What does this fold into?
Amino acid sequence: MRALNSVVISGREVLPLVEGGKGISVSNGESSGAWAAAGGVGTFSGVNADSYDANGKLIPQLYYGRTRRERHEELVAYAIKGGINQARIAWERAAGKGRIHMNVLWEMAASERVLHGVLEGAKGLIHGVTCGAGMPYRIAEICAQYNVHYYPIVSSARAFRALWKRAYHKFRELLGGVVYEDPWLAGGHNGLSNIEDPEHPEQPYPRVVELRNQMSEFGLKEIPIFMAGGVWFLREWENWLDNKEVGPVAFQFGTRPLLTQESPISEAWKRTLLTLNEGDIYLNRFSPTGFYSSAVENGFLRRLKGRSARQIPFTVEPVGEHMTELAVGARRRLVYVAATDRAHALGWVAEGYTEALRTPDSTLIFVTPKEAEEIRIDQINCMGCLSACQFSNWAQNEQGSTGKKADPRSYCIQKTLQDIAHTDDVENQLMFAGHNAFRFKDDPFYSNGFIPTVRQLVDRIATGD
It folds into this structure.
């Protein structure tokens, strides 16, 4: 393989190998600090990060507020404290090597307040901020206040153009790089637009070349692009190195760092990664953010698919083909459905899916009483972890609501991501992963269940494998 030349990232020459930030507690100060110590760019998650007491014991994120607004404030406080904690740990583990970045989601709760709080409380410890999940127009302005580089995550040249024209051109000097996150291959939330087909992936090379051409038009020819999503063996991307069409490039790894000794995920999660087959990663649109996301298909996702499959449209008055009465709910209120749909509904009820829940799209989904109660409790316990949530109808506005009916086809993302990060339950929680996660099973590096240290992984990747 060609020599892997260093790239200037956040003001220092480092290996062009970047740890992906991922979500709640899945990349932390330990893992990101180790990645930086190995000479690359470590990225800890600033999304409701863990914090610890004076004895180093994990502080559970418990909520006592009676209202969603009160719980929302508790969540913001946890997020800021956790981000500062993880930045300090990463800085200590890095021992002055590499670079430390923080990853945040623009659509997370109070993202601007959290950014200010962490960057103020961890001054000098964070070299860059990566930010996606939405259109983070103000990330540049916020980072400029702390002299920190910013790295927007985009999935197209079109998205970057909009960000540059509206805001980033004012903060040119601190744009450290642009992360191209492939919307068909990356794990977690994906940036598929309405004009892109989730069933027909496009090759990343022409999309990245288009991004580079757009950046060159803006005078950003030397700013590196981070290729994120689908990167496993660097030898498979050798033609990207020293490529004039691509320009300066680094490679971001989100899935492979999950399986390291420093990775904070559970042993059950690590063992599961070693058993996945091609096709086990499911691109879905159940997320309460409204974005597509990629996760391991397990009992959790199968239940969500079942909810949506057991779904029929209804009206409250007889209209069109909706002429057949159906009594739903504890009060047996009448709605009107098509005759064939009534037959489906009665069949589901006979199978034990006796609870009919209304969705914002004037449909009914049929679930078990236990599942209905869990949905109800999760919606009541909402702490406003997103700027706007389809599942609970929370919104970060004066009304504290999206103004729409809560959608029971979705789920509480805060609850499930906290649970998978802090328990061994990998069957009943959301397990994000990139679409290449099945490669753990056949990669000889992981034979006999071998789990490397971060340094061993970085050294291996640098060889091309």
Q: What stands out?
A: The longest strand covers residues 99-105. Residues 277 and 438 are 5 Å apart (CA to CA). The chain has a mean pLDDT of 93. The radius of gyration is 23 Å.
